[in-house]
């Protein structure tokens, strides 16, 4: 069995004072009530000698805070791809003296509602509601009862809850500009059709990446050579689309703009199977920066999802609300959506057409 927990009464006995005096000293209120320095010294020395640790929850409740944050997600915690969101959130919370309580719903609305209710019952100071994939969906009914931030998530209609998102449109534009600057004009899209109407509003990543790509194409007076839509974005679909493109195209160099790395992995295999090479014959650009992207040969040029930075920023915004007691209804529209850039991981999969 472990050793007995040291209580405030134990500290009071060792210091020769009453429990109420020991409590006032340990909570920092002793000087307000003119308790002498000698008593302060005795109480603190006794607490240190005994290894006393104050009950952070009870102190927090007296101060109107529990120093805890709820982090509720669909599958972020169990995802190797998005798990850095948790790391960033934990770092930001720990630096400010807060603990993170993490719950996962498996994407089930009923489980999400239960977890939010549990966080409220445990008097968490605020909640981060997170999604593994950037998307829009309805929120649980009680989420607005305490400070909250949406992470990788938005809600349809008007909401006063701030959201933290990757800047997908900017990344899409920069991906297209990268290929255009290399001299490519025959650029095929794998993972999306050539029009914004091909994607529902809830598919934020796809729509915003495509919006940025088409914007860059319009500025350059270029149209996509083809578009191959598939909402699953898996390697098999990337392989199938790339084979169709490569078997119907002529020998001239071309570029594949893949909407995520898994599609690009399949495209790599198709390029190899059709006797071409990357980047001499085919340039490839993608999004996400999955762990395998840097291990491919040649390395895959891709725009990284800044998971760690997203998690950190969500907690920072949440604690700004907690500290200020902010009225979210007073927030301006530009204070509600916080977009973080997707950094370019420049590797060896892009070259000018020969």
Automatic annotation (TrEMBL):
Q: Name one Pfam family in it.
A: Peripla_BP_3
Q: Name one GO molecular function term.
A: transcription cis-regulatory region binding
Q: Does the keyword Transcription apply?
A: yes
Gene3D superfamilies found in the cross-reference section: 3.40.50.2300, lambda repressor-like DNA-binding domains (1.10.260.40)
Keywords from the named record:
DNA-binding, Repressor, Transcription, Transcription regulation
Q: Which residues form the HTH lacI-type domain?
A: 6-63
Q: Where are the transmembrane segments?
A: none
User: What InterPro entries does its record include?
Assistant: HTH_LacI (IPR000843), LacI/GalR-like_sensor (IPR046335), Lambda_DNA-bd_dom_sf (IPR010982), Peripla_BP_I (IPR028082)
The cross-references to CDD domains, in alphabetical order and at most eight, read: HTH_LacI, PBP1_sucrose_transcription_regulator
Residue ranges of the region described as Disordered: 335-354
Sorted alphabetically, which SMART domains does this protein's record hold?
A: HTH_LACI (SM00354)
Protein's name in the database = LacI family transcriptional regulator
């Amino acid at each position: 069995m472990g050793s007995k927990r040291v209580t405030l009464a134990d500290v009071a006995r060792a210091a020769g004072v009453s429990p109420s005096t020991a409590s006032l000293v340990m909570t920092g209120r002793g000087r307000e009530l003119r308790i002498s320095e000698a008593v302060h010294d005795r109480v603190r020395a006794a607490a240190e000698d005994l290894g006393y640790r104050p009950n952070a929850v009870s102190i927090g409740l007296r101060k109107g805070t529990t120093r805890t944050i709820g982090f509720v997600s669909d599958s972020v915690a169990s995802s190797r791809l998005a798990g850095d969101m948790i790391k960033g959130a934990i770092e930001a919370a720990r630096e400010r003296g807060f603990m993170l309580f993490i719950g996962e719903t498996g994407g089930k609305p009923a489980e999400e509602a239960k977890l939010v209710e549990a966080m409220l019952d445990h008097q968490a100071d605020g909640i981060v509601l997170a999604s593994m994939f950037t998307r829009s969906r309805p929120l649980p009914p009680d989420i607005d009862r305490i400070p909250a931030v949406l992470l990788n998530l938005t809600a349809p209609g008007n909401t006063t809850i701030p959201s933290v998102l990757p800047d997908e449109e900017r990344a899409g534009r920069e991906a297209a500009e990268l290929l255009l600057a290399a001299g490519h004009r025959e650029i095929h899209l794998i993972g999306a059709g050539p029009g914004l109407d091909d994607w529902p509003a809830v598919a934020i990543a796809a729509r915003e990446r495509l919006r940025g790509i088409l914007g860059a194409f319009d500025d350059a007076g270029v149209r996509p050579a083809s578009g191959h839509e598939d909402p699953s974005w898996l390697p098999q679909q990337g392989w199938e689309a790339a084979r169709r493109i490569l078997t119907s195209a002529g020998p001239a160099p071309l570029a594949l703009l893949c909407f995520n790395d898994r599609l690009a992995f399949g495209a790599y295999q198709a390029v190899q199977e059709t006797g071409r090479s990357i980047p001499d014959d085919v340039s490839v650009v993608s999004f996400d920066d999955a762990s395998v992207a840097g291990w491919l040969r040649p390395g895959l040029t891709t725009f990284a999802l800044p998971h760690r930075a997203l998690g950190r920023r969500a907690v920072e915004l949440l604690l700004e609300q907690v500290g200020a007691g902010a009225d979210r209804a007073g927030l301006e529209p530009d204070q509600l959506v916080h977009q973080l850039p997707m950094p370019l991981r420049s590797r060896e999969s892009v070259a000018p057409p020969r």
